[in-house]
Predict the structure.
Amino acid sequence: FKETNGPTDSYAAISQVDRLQSEPESIRKWREEQKERLEQLDANSRKQEAEWKEKAIKELEEWYARQDEKLQKTKASNRVADEAFYKQPFADVIGYVAAEEAFVNDAEDIFPGTEWERVAQLCDFNPKSSKQAKDVSRMRSVLISLKQAPLVR
């Protein structure tokens, strides 16, 4: 048997009952209405959350279907292009020859002050078309700033 100076559980229960009994009717009615209103809001939010989840699942499935369709179309077009390319005579040499011709043509147009234009032609400055795994945005911004304001020696 322990003695305590503070209120015990039985005292707290009696106090709670006394407070509820002495509570005015309007406050008790408001408390019940508030409880019902909160329960209704909770039910509505759970229902809305379930609808959003269903909608998100449907949209995700549609997105996956569109992506798969796009991937299949790309694969088919690549196969057709590859077959057409490799049916040409000397197809294995054509790529190297075209790249070398482009390099030689660009090398002939060397003028002082056109260095950055040549660098810009070799770089892909469109961030969305870049399919690299690395982030090259900082390098891209440095090259653009150097092109606009070249270093003076």
User: Anything to note?
Assistant: The radius of gyration is 37 Å. The first helix runs from residue 9 to 22. The mean pLDDT is 77.
